[in-house]
Amino acid sequence: MSKEEANSKLGGPAAGEKRVVFMGDSITEGWHFSEPGGAFADNPYVNRGISGQTSPQMLSCFRRDVIELQPKVVVILAKANDIAGYGADDTGTDRGQPGDHGEPGDG
To answer: Most exposed of 64, 65, 73, 79 (fewest Cβ within 10 Å)?
Structure first.
Protein backbone atom coordinates (compact mmCIF):
# COMPACT_ATOMS: atom_id res chain seq x y z
CA MET A 1 0.00 0.00 0.00
CA SER A 2 1.37 3.43 -0.94
CA LYS A 3 1.74 6.23 1.62
CA GLU A 4 -1.08 8.12 -0.16
CA GLU A 5 -3.40 5.11 0.19
CA ALA A 6 -2.38 4.56 3.81
CA ASN A 7 -2.97 8.24 4.63
CA SER A 8 -6.37 8.19 2.95
CA LYS A 9 -7.37 5.03 4.83
CA LEU A 10 -6.15 6.50 8.14
CA GLY A 11 -8.02 9.79 7.76
CA GLY A 12 -7.97 12.53 10.36
CA PRO A 13 -7.54 11.92 14.08
CA ALA A 14 -10.53 10.96 16.19
CA ALA A 15 -11.85 13.47 18.70
CA GLY A 16 -9.36 13.68 21.58
CA GLU A 17 -6.77 11.54 19.77
CA LYS A 18 -3.19 12.60 20.40
CA ARG A 19 -1.71 11.39 17.14
CA VAL A 20 2.07 11.27 16.73
CA VAL A 21 3.70 11.00 13.29
CA PHE A 22 7.24 9.62 13.02
CA MET A 23 9.06 10.68 9.85
CA GLY A 24 12.50 9.48 8.83
CA ASP A 25 14.54 6.91 6.98
CA SER A 26 15.06 3.14 7.30
CA ILE A 27 15.73 3.46 11.02
CA THR A 28 12.25 4.91 11.53
CA GLU A 29 10.70 2.55 8.98
CA GLY A 30 12.08 -0.38 11.00
CA TRP A 31 10.01 0.54 14.05
CA HIS A 32 6.99 -1.67 13.40
CA PHE A 33 4.28 0.23 15.23
CA SER A 34 1.38 -2.07 14.52
CA GLU A 35 2.94 -5.37 15.60
CA PRO A 36 0.77 -7.05 18.23
CA GLY A 37 2.41 -6.71 21.61
CA GLY A 38 4.86 -4.11 20.29
CA ALA A 39 5.74 -1.02 22.30
CA PHE A 40 3.60 1.18 20.05
CA ALA A 41 0.75 -1.24 19.21
CA ASP A 42 -2.00 0.48 21.22
CA ASN A 43 -1.01 4.08 20.54
CA PRO A 44 -2.13 6.51 17.82
CA TYR A 45 1.38 6.55 16.31
CA VAL A 46 1.88 6.72 12.56
CA ASN A 47 5.12 5.53 10.96
CA ARG A 48 6.15 7.45 7.85
CA GLY A 49 9.74 6.25 7.65
CA ILE A 50 11.05 5.46 4.17
CA SER A 51 14.29 3.57 3.65
CA GLY A 52 16.94 5.71 1.96
CA GLN A 53 14.98 8.94 2.35
CA THR A 54 16.99 12.16 2.49
CA SER A 55 16.04 15.50 4.05
CA PRO A 56 14.99 17.10 0.71
CA GLN A 57 12.79 14.07 0.02
CA MET A 58 11.22 14.40 3.48
CA LEU A 59 10.43 18.03 2.77
CA SER A 60 8.78 17.13 -0.53
CA CYS A 61 6.28 14.81 1.16
CA PHE A 62 5.96 16.62 4.52
CA ARG A 63 2.52 18.02 3.72
CA ARG A 64 1.15 14.63 2.62
CA ASP A 65 2.80 12.50 5.32
CA VAL A 66 2.60 14.87 8.29
CA ILE A 67 0.49 18.02 7.98
CA GLU A 68 -2.51 16.33 6.35
CA LEU A 69 -2.56 13.71 9.14
CA GLN A 70 -3.04 16.49 11.73
CA PRO A 71 -0.73 15.14 14.44
CA LYS A 72 -0.29 16.70 17.85
CA VAL A 73 3.43 15.80 17.73
CA VAL A 74 5.94 15.05 14.97
CA VAL A 75 9.16 13.11 15.54
CA ILE A 76 11.74 13.52 12.76
CA LEU A 77 14.87 11.46 12.24
CA ALA A 78 16.81 13.16 9.45
CA LYS A 79 20.24 13.66 7.91
CA ALA A 80 21.64 10.12 8.22
CA ASN A 81 21.24 9.47 4.49
CA ASP A 82 22.33 13.01 3.64
CA ILE A 83 25.60 12.46 5.50
CA ALA A 84 26.03 9.05 3.87
CA GLY A 85 25.74 10.75 0.47
CA TYR A 86 22.48 9.19 -0.75
CA GLY A 87 19.98 11.01 -2.95
CA ALA A 88 20.39 14.43 -4.53
CA ASP A 89 23.03 16.79 -3.18
CA ASP A 90 22.59 20.56 -2.77
CA THR A 91 23.24 21.09 -6.49
CA GLY A 92 20.36 18.78 -7.43
CA THR A 93 22.69 16.11 -8.75
CA ASP A 94 21.37 12.63 -8.09
CA ARG A 95 23.94 10.80 -5.98
CA GLY A 96 22.18 7.45 -5.99
CA GLN A 97 20.39 5.34 -3.43
CA PRO A 98 21.59 3.08 -0.63
CA GLY A 99 23.47 0.17 -2.13
CA ASP A 100 24.56 2.11 -5.23
CA HIS A 101 27.91 3.03 -3.71
CA GLY A 102 29.40 -0.37 -2.90
CA GLU A 103 31.17 -1.03 0.33
CA PRO A 104 32.92 1.66 2.40
CA GLY A 105 36.40 2.26 1.03
CA ASP A 106 35.52 1.14 -2.51
CA GLY A 107 36.43 4.57 -3.65
So the answer is: 73
Q: Which has the closest alpha carbon to 43: 67, 17, 69?
A: 17
pLDDT in tens, 43-90: 899 989 888 899 999 999 999 999 999 999 999 999 888 887 776 555
Dihedral, CA of residue 10, residue 87, residue 91 and residue 58, to nearest 10 = 20
- According to CATH, the topology of domain 3-11+20-84 is Rossmann fold (3.40.50)
Domains in the chain: boundaries: 3-11+20-84
> pTM to 2 decimals?
0.73
What is the C-alpha separation between 24 and 9, in angstroms, rounded? 21
Cα angle value 25/31/34 (rounded, 5°): 130
**Selection from 70, 66, 72, 69 nearest residue 24 by Cα:** 66
